[in-house]
C-alpha cells in the first residue's frame, strides 16, 4: 500500500511539473502574439519585456510573493515568509511561479510600442510582489473569497483578469500611440507586422493551455485522471467555438474574416473557459466559448473606438473582459462540483447564491487591481516617467532602448505612411544623424568638370517606369527578359489611381486604403526599342480590370557607369539596367 501511495505521489508531482513546463512556454506564445501584432521596429523590445517579466518576477515571487499568497489561511493576507524559508513543496512553488509570470506578461501587449523599459521592469516586479499574490490569496490561498465558495479553477480572474485590468489602467494612463487617433477622435488602424508570428503565438498558447487548465488538477492519480481528461476536452471545445464565432462575426461586420481578431477569438475562448473548465459539460463549454467570441469582438471595439484606449494586441478584451465573463458564466453553466456532487450553476438548479459569489469576486478583484495599479502607474509617471519620447516612439524602441538596429538581422525594414496613421504623426525638421556621423557632402566630395565634347552619344536613352500590381511582377520580369532587358530597379511603393483604392478593416477599424501596395519597375534602354518594352509590359500586365497599372516614358540625358566611367550608350552595353 505504501509503495502504491508513493507511486501515486510521484505521478502527481510529475503531472504538476509537466504543467509547469507548459505554462512556462506560454511566455514564448505571448511574446510571439505581441510581436506579430505590433510593428517590427519594436520587436526586440517586446521580446525583451517578455523575457524580463519572468526573470524579474521569479525571484520577487520567491522573496515574498509566494508567502503572501499561500503562507496561511487568513482572510486577507497569507504571511511574510521571506525567501520561502518555511516551504519545501517545490512542485507547488514552481507551478505557482509560472502562473504569476503569466499574469505579469499580459500587461506588456496593451502598453506596447511606447512604454519605457525601465518603467516596465518596475511595475512588472510590483505585480509579482503584491498585486497578484494578495488577490490570488483571496481566491486560491484560503482567503475570504475561497471561504465564500468563489470558483476560479485555473485563473480566469486570478491570473487573466488581474493582467487585463492592469493592462487597461496602464494603457489609459499611458495614452495612445502617436497617430492612433485623429484630432476628431477617429481611430486609425496601425497594422501588426507579422500575422505569421501572431498565429504561431496563438498555437503555442493553445497547446500550453492544456497544461494551464488540465494540470491545475494538481494530480493525475485516482479520479483526477478522468477529471483532467474532461478539462482538456472542455478547454479545447470552448477555444474552437469562440474562434468560429469571431470568424463569423467579423465576416459579417467587416465583409471579410479578420485574421488578427480571429486569433484573439481563440485566446478569448481559452481565457473564458479557464474558470469553470472543471465544472461544465461540453454544452456549457461551447456556450461559454460562443459568448466569449461576442465579448472579445465588441469588447475590443468598445475599448478602442469608444473609450479611446489604445491596446495594440487586444489584451484588455481577451484577458480582462473575457476573464470576467468566463468567471461569471461559471455561475450559470457549472452543472455541479464533480468532486462533491454539489449543484452549482443557476441553469442546473444551483440557485443564485453561487452566481452572486462569482459576481462579487469579479467586482472586488477589479477594484483591488484598479486602485493599486493606478497608484503604481501614476507614481511611475510622476517620477522616472512611464512613456518614451516622441522621437523614440517613432524611430522605434529597439534602437533607443536596446541599441538594436533591427530585430531582423540582414533585413532592411521600412515604415509605411499607415504606420503613423497619416502624416500628422511625423516629426518635423532635419533627419537625425548618428553620433559622429559625417555629412554626406563631406563624406563623398563631388567634382564637376565641363567636358570638351558632348558627354552622351547620339543614341536615344529612354527610361521606362512601370507601376503595376505586386502579383504581376514575375510575369513582367519574364516578359522583359525575353526581349533582352536584363537590368532593372524594383521598388515596393504605395499609390492609387482615380479609383482612390478601397476600404478594408483591421481589428474593426476602417483602414485608409487610398494608397495601395504596388510594384515599381524602372529600366533604361538604348539598344532595345522602347516600343518593344511597352508592348511586352502591356501584354504581361493586362487583365482588363481597374488597377492593371501605368507605364511612364522619359527621355534620359545621360547615363554614367560608375565602375568604368563609360557614358551614354556605352554605359548600357553588356546589360541594359537602371
CATH superfamily of the largest domain: Ammonium transporter AmtB like domains
* Sheet with most strands: 4 strands, antiparallel
CATH architecture of the largest domain: Orthogonal Bundle
Percent of residues in helices comes to 40-55%
How many whole angstroms does the radius of gyration measure? 30 Å
Assigned CATH class of the largest domain: Mainly Alpha
Uncertain spans: 412-436, 443-457
Number of domains: 2
The SSE string, one letter per element, is: HHHHHHHHHHHHHHHEHEEEEHE
Side-by-side strand order of the widest sheet:
2-5-1-6
Q: How many alpha or pi helices?
A: 17
CATH topology of the largest domain: Ammonium transporter fold
Can you characterise this structure?
The chain is an alpha+beta fold. It has 17 helices and six strands. The strands form two sheets. Strands 2-5-1-6 form a four-stranded antiparallel sheet, covered by helices on one side. It has a two-stranded antiparallel sheet with strand order 3-4. The chain is elongated, with a radius of gyration of 30 Å.
Amino acid at each position: 500500500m505504501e509503495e502504491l501511495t508513493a507511486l501515486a505521489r510521484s505521478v502527481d508531482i510529475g503531472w504538476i511539473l509537466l504543467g509547469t513546463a507548459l505554462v512556462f512556454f506560454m511566455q514564448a506564445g505571448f511574446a510571439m502574439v505581441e510581436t506579430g501584432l505590433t510593428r517590427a521596429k519594436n520587436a526586440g523590445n517586446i521580446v525583451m519585456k517578455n523575457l524580463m517579466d519572468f526573470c524579474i518576477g521569479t525571484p520577487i515571487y520567491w522573496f515574498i510573493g509566494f508567502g503572501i499568497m499561500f503562507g496561511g489561511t487568513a482572510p486577507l493576507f497569507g504571511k511574510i515568509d521571506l525567501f520561502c524559508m518555511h516551504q519545501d513543496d517545490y512542485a507547488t512553488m514552481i507551478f505557482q511561479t509560472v502562473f504569476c509570470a503569466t499574469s505579469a506578461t499580459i500587461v506588456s501587449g496593451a502598453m506596447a510600442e511606447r512604454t519605457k523599459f525601465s518603467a516596465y521592469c518596475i511595475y512588472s516586479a510590483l505585480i509579482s510582489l503584491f498585486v497578484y499574490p494578495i488577490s490570488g490569496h483571496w481566491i486560491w490561498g484560503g482567503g475570504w473569497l475561497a471561504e465564500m465558495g468563489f470558483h476560479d479553477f485555473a485563473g480566469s480572474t486570478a491570473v487573466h483578469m488581474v493582467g487585463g485590468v492592469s493592462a487597461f489602467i496602464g494603457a489609459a494612463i499611458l495614452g495612445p500611440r502617436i497617430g492612433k487617433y485623429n484630432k476628431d477622435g477617429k481611430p486609425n488602424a496601425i497594422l501588426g507586422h507579422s500575422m505569421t508570428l501572431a498565429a504561431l503565438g496563438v498555437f503555442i498558447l493553445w497547446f500550453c493551455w492544456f497544461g494551464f487548465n488540465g494540470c491545475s488538477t494538481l494530480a493525475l492519480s485516482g479520479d483526477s485522471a478522468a477529471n483532467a481528461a474532461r478539462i482538456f476536452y472542455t478547454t479545447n471545445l470552448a477555444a474552437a467555438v469562440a474562434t468560429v464565432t469571431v470568424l463569423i462575426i467579423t465576416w459579417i461586420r467587416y465583409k471579410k474574416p479578420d485574421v488578427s481578431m480571429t486569433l484573439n477569438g481563440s485566446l478569448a475562448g481559452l481565457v473564458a473557459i479557464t474558470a469553470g473548465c472543471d465544472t461544465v459539460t461540453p454544452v456549457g463549454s461551447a456556450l461559454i466559448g460562443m459568448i466569449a467570441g461576442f465579448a472579445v469582438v465588441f469588447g475590443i471595439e468598445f475599448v478602442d473606438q469608444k473609450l479611446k484606449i489604445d491596446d495594440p494586441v487586444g489584451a484588455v478584451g481577451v484577458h480582462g473582459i473575457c476573464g470576467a465573463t468566463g468567471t461569471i458564466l461559471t455561475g450559470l453553466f457549472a452543472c455541479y462540483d464533480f468532486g462533491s456532487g454539489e449543484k452549482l450553476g443557476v441553469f442546473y438548479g444551483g440557485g443564485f447564491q453561487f452566481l452572486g459569489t462569482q459576481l462579487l469576486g469579479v467586482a472586488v478583484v477589479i477594484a483591488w487591481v484598479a486602485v493599486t495599479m493606478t497608484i503604481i502607474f501614476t507614481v511611475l509617471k510622476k517620477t522616472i516617467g512611464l512613456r518614451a519620447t516622441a522621437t523614440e516612439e517613432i524611430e522605434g524602441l529597439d534602437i533607443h532602448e536596446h541599441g538594436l538596429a533591427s530585430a531582423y538581422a540582414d533585413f532592411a525594414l521600412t515604415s509605411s505612411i499607415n504606420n503613423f496613421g497619416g502624416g500628422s504623426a511625423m516629426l518635423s525638421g532635419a533627419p537625425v544623424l548618428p553620433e559622429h556621423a559625417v555629412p554626406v557632402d563631406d563624406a563623398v566630395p563631388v567634382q564637376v568638370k565641363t567636358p570638351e565634347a558632348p558627354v552622351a552619344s547620339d543614341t536615344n536613352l529612354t527610361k521606362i517606369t512601370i507601376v503595376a500590381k505586386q502579383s504581376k511582377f514575375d510575369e513582367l520580369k519574364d516578359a522583359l527578359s525575353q526581349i533582352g532587358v536584363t537590368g532593372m530597379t524594383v521598388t515596393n511603393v504605395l499609390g492609387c489611381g482615380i479609383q482612390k483604392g478601397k476600404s478594408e478593416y483591421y481589428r474593426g477599424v476602417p483602414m485608409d486604403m487610398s494608397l495601395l501596395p504596388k510594384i515599381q519597375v524602372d529600366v533604361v534602354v538604348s539598344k532595345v526599342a522602347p516600343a518593344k518594352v511597352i508592348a511586352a509590359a502591356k501584354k504581361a500586365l493586362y487583365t482588363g480590370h481597374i488597377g492593371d497599372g501605368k507605364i511612364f516614358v522619359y527621355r534620359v540625358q545621360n547615363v554614367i557607369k560608375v565602375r568604368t566611367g563609360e557614358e551614354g550608350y556605352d554605359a548600357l552595353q553588356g546589360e541594359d539596367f537602371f
